[in-house]
């Protein structure tokens, strides 16, 4: 029987407003092995859970997160846009999100803020009640992820990469990803499902001693076996992701 891992993308965001405590709790209730969230830094230095750099999408206020205080952000309604049943949902802090993680579960935290937010992020993780191995910082900015790995060596830290298609094929190539991730001292890569990810790709990553995650998988056709865990928005248990073809190494 293949071991499987389900990662709820922005919480159970198909059913509840993304990146809210409601979506996070629902992800755990639906049986997710891990929940993925995104974080920015507020004007007064708090790490808050929201995907976009502005509050326009989820709170209907077209203003940058970085110029709003925590009090400003907490006053916004981050749930009504999804449905009136979610009215009153607030933008959580990272501290509040980490406090929801049950024993044996993990939380992937995508760092959207600048390098300036690294010290506060690190202190928030250290001050939380969960074990370091339950927090997986991820992000697109390689330098930021390098700094976080240096500050939190006990955490698994992964580099997020989006593929682009060129006349010469998909870029970046897997060899480049492996080289850069290892040079930065990271533990793995988190790549887009739209690219050249297949068992051969996964084998190269795992042979290099790196973990592999894939985002975002919302259809059975994309849930190919022998690749690695994926993040999904939909709740259907059809999209469970085999990880058994990884030489016994957890991904």
Give a written overview of the molecule.
This protein has helices at residues 21-29, 56-59, 70-74, 94-98, 118-127, 142-151, 174-183, 199-207, and strands at 6-9, 34-41, 47-49, 54-55, 61-64, 106-111, 135-139, 158-161, 164-166, 169-171, 188-192, 211-215, 230-232. Residues 234-251 have low confidence and may be disordered. α1 links the parallel β1 and β2. The protein has a single domain, classed as Phosphatidylinositol (PI) phosphodiesterase (TIM Barrel). Strands 1, 2, 3, 6, 7, 8, 11, 12 and 13 form a 9-stranded mixed sheet that branches. The chain has a two-stranded antiparallel sheet with strand order 4-5. The protein contains 8 helices and 13 strands. It is an alpha/beta fold and 251 residues long. It is globular.
Helix content: 10-25%
Radius of gyration, in angstroms, nearest whole number: 18 Å
Q: Unreliable runs, pLDDT <50, ≥5 residues?
A: 234-251
Number of domains: 1
Question: Which class of secondary structure composition applies to the elements?
Answer: alpha/beta
Instruction: Give, in order, the helices and strands.
Output: EHEEEHEHHEHEHEEEHEHEE
Question: What overall geometry do the principal axes of the alpha carbons give?
Answer: globular
Biggest sheet architecture: 9 strands, mixed
**CATH fold-level label:** TIM Barrel
CATH superfamily: Phosphatidylinositol (PI) phosphodiesterase
Q: State the CATH class.
A: Alpha Beta
Approximate strand percentage: 15-25%
| N- and C-termini, Cα separation | 16 Å
Helix tally equals: 8
Total strand segments: 13
| Architecture per CATH nomenclature, i.e. the level-2 architecture | Alpha-Beta Barrel
User: On the 0-100 scale, what is the average pLDDT?
Assistant: 88
């Amino acid at each position: 029987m293949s071991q499987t891992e389900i990662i709820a993308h922005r919480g159970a965001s198909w059913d509840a407003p993304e990146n809210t405590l409601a979506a996070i709790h629902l992800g755990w209730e639906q049986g997710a092995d891990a929940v993925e969230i995104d974080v920015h830094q507020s004007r007064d230095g708090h790490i808050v859970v929201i995907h976009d750099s502005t509050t326009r999408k989820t709170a209907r206020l077209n203003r940058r997160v970085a110029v709003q205080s925590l009090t400003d952000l907490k006053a916004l309604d981050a749930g009504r846009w999804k449905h009136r049943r979610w009215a009153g949902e607030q933008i959580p802090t990272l501290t509040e999100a980490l406090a929801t993680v049950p024993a044996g579960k993990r939380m992937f935290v995508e760092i959207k803020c600048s390098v300036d937010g690294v010290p506060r992020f690190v202190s928030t993780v250290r001050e939380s009640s969960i074990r370091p191995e339950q927090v997986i910082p991820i992000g697109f900015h390689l330098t930021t992820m390098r700094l976080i790995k240096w500050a939190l060596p006990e955490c698994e830290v992964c580099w997020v990469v989006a593929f682009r298609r060129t006349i010469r094929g998909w870029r970046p190539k897997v060899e480049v990803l492996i080289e850069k991730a290892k040079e930065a001292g990271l533990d793995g890569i988190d790549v887009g499902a739209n690219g050249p990810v297949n068992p051969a790709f996964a084998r190269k990553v795992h042979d290099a001693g790196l973990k592999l995650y894939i985002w975002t998988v919302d259809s059975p056709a994309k849930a190919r076996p022998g690749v690695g865990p994926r993040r999904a928005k939909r709740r259907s248990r059809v999209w469970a992701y085999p990880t058994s073809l990884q030489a016994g190494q957890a991904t």
